[in-house]
Amino acid sequence: MASQVTFIGAGNMASAIFGGMIDNGYPATAITATSPDAERLTALAAERGIHTTDDNAAAVAEADVVVLAVKPQIMREVCEGLRDAVQARRPLIVSVAAGLTAETLDTWLGGDLAVVRCMPNTPSLVGAGASGLYANARVSDAQRELATTLLEAVGIVEWVDDEALLEAVTAVSGSGPAYFFLVFEALEEAGVRLGLPAATARRLALQTGLGAATMAQRSEHDPAQLRRNVMSPGGTTERAIHSLEDGGLRELFADATEACAARAREMAAELGESTPNR
Ligand SMILES: NC(=O)C1=CN([C@@H]2O[C@H](COP(=O)(O)OP(=O)(O)OC[C@H]3O[C@@H](n4cnc5c(N)ncnc54)[C@H](OP(=O)(O)O)[C@@H]3O)[C@@H](O)[C@H]2O)C=CC1
Ligand SMILES: O=C(O)[C@@H]1CCC=N1
């Protein structure tokens, strides 16, 4: 029988994950989602066939997995409201919230729980996500598999064995979609400067990004080799790549990801400061 999965919060990230699960054949009747928004719950029940309720604690009573999918700023209040129900049931806790450590969540929920912490990214909303996952010591192999199944419903999953590495995951893939969006913006602007209509430049830039990523995923060659394959000696790409390298592109990415990871650490400290038992 399928594990009972309860989503606390039925917003973008939660609906992407349970939508992906259902599309992959997971029984909708084994899924419950909660929200304070009654209209949203009615629509979700009708469209997806899942159970819905505005009572978080009741939704946890029979759950095998509880996915915490509310904003980090309200997570403490939500967890404290769930504490008794979670301690009575002791389900696997899966959090997709940015910046909150497994230990902080465990403390807010009363302690001694199996907690999986995820860093997803927004392309999960179109089934092309990339998530980094970390499990605390209480998570069993079967629970790891379950967490993998949930997050693989919206993309690829990479496990890290040190929670601090989720900062690196944030720097590469959590925040990463924004880097590529910036590149698309810059490429479109550059195309317009060279005379292309904006719509044409955008379509060409986006399709090129999609094509390059698809090709790199399918190829037996690494991205460096694929890049060299485009760079005919003495040709146009060579000039462009030299210009990007001379402009310090690699160093810019190193600096940007360092800054991102540093901010992830700061945010964890800021959000963790409100931990009751610290
Ligand atoms: N790495 C990344 O890029 C991403 C990370 N995330 C993480 O995912 C989490 C959810 O984000 P996202 O889905 O975008 O946010 P949304 O605002 O779309 O979803 C949060 C949902 O929680 C509901 N909610 C508010 N209060 C409660 C409550 N007390 N009990 C139950 N539900 C409640 C909200 O309802 P209402 O709107 O009515 O208040 C809303 O539907 C965040 O913690 C975020 O950090 C998400 C997206 C990407
Ligand atoms: O920018 C942020 O803080 C969040 C975390 C990763 C992506 N968005």
Distance between the termini: 39 Å
Count structural domains: 2
- Radius of gyration, taken over Cα atoms and rounded to an integer in Å: 22 Å
Helix run count: 12
Query: Which class best fits the helix and strand makeup?
Result: alpha/beta
CATH homologous superfamily grouping of the largest domain: NAD(P)-binding Rossmann-like Domain
Question: What small molecules does this complex bind?
Answer: NADPH dihydro-nicotinamide-adenine-dinucleotide phosphate, (2S)-3,4-dihydro-2H-pyrrole-2-carboxylic acid
The fraction of residues in strands falls at: 5-15%
Main sheet strand line-up: 3-2-1-4-5-6-7-8
CATH hierarchy class name of the largest domain? Alpha Beta
Order of helices and strands: EHEHEHEHEHEEHEHHHHHH
Unreliable parts: none
Rounded mean pLDDT is 95
Function: Catalyzes the reduction of 1-pyrroline-5-carboxylate (PCA) to L-proline.
Pathway: Amino-acid biosynthesis; L-proline biosynthesis; L-proline from L-glutamate 5-semialdehyde: step 1/1
Protein name: Pyrroline-5-carboxylate reductase
Domain Pyrroline-5-carboxylate reductase dimerisation: 163-267
In short:
This protein is an alpha/beta fold and 278 residues long. It has 12 helices and 8 strands. The protein has an 8-stranded mixed sheet with strand order 3-2-1-4-5-6-7-8, with helices on both faces.
